[in-house]
């Protein structure tokens, strides 16, 4: 098999994925209008991901996030930890 054929076979899936993403975004743009993308934090799972952000919402700022403010299970802010930390600082 020639090198050109191997290169085409290797690059074809990536090219198809790129074209698919472009078509998908174009169709989304035609139906919803322009979108603002940003990093969104999901407190329930403790993860963040890039997605379209609604106009009334603002994107997640990782510089202001303190992972110590959240439990491992459920992502709820633990008020007891805040009290413990404030006593440790004194």
Structure in words:
The chain is α+β, with helices and mostly antiparallel strands. Helix content is 46%, strand content 16%. The chain contains two helices and two strands; from the N terminus they run αββα. A two-stranded antiparallel sheet has the order 1-2. A hairpin with a 4-residue loop joins β1 and β2. The termini are far apart. 0% of the residues are buried.
- What summary fits the major beta sheet? 2 strands, antiparallel
Number of helices: 2
Mean pLDDT: 76
Q: How many strand segments?
A: 2
Overall SS class: alpha+beta
C-alpha Rg (nearest Å): 22 Å
The order of strands across the largest sheet is 1-2
Give the end-to-end Cα distance, rounded to a whole number of Å: 72 Å
Give the number of domains.
2
Overall 3D geometry?
flat
> Which runs of at least 5 residues are low in confidence (pLDDT < 50)?
none
- What is the N-to-C order of secondary-structure elements (H for helix, E for strand)? HEEH
Strand content: 15-25%
Percent helix? 40-55%
Provide a quick synopsis of the model.
The protein is of the alpha+beta class. The chain has helices spanning 3-32, 79-89; strands at residues 36-42, 47-53.
Write the layout of secondary structure elements.
Elements: H1 3-32, E1 36-42, E2 47-53, H2 79-89
Antiparallel strand pairs: 1-2
